[in-house]
Structures
1.
Amino acid sequence: HNTMSDNDVEFVYVDESSISTYLKCPSCLKTYVEPVIRPDGSRRCRACALFDDDENDLVPVTETILLGMLDDLP
């Protein structure tokens, strides 16, 4: 479900197959980019969530451990 626009960044990882499923979006199956929490409590990439939800209904993920783990991926 991820569509690329001029403002989106495509990340390339050293060993994507070794990345935990907890760090991957269940919609696009890629590593989270700008993860958000949907009204039902699930997490998605912002771009994926916008297919089903209004921007105003999305809450940015602020969990330091999740964001740190994403930032540390080689």
Note: The first helix runs from residue 46 to 49.
2.
Amino acid sequence: MKHFLVDIHYTAPIEEIEKTVQEHRKFLQTGYEKGMLLCSGPKNSKTGGIVIARAVSEDSLKVFFADDPYKLKNLVEYTFTEFNPVKHQNFLVKWIEGN
């Protein structure tokens, strides 16, 4: 498995984002259920959000996020940054190893 920081940047006014936030969170829940996502949440600056994810490839992660209601409504842009979690809490071992 590869690991990613997904940086979500709002490209629409916050009022438009707020109208879609519940749909977006329901979409993210499918990623949690698949074991793809570790954590997610909005930036305190209200300019976007952050997701920590894992996937077999960046392309497969992009395919997943293509169905995000934020993306479908053209409200956001994403930056996908792959990283290697060499240091982590012990309780994350199985998730990091892909189990």
Note: The chain has four helices and four strands.
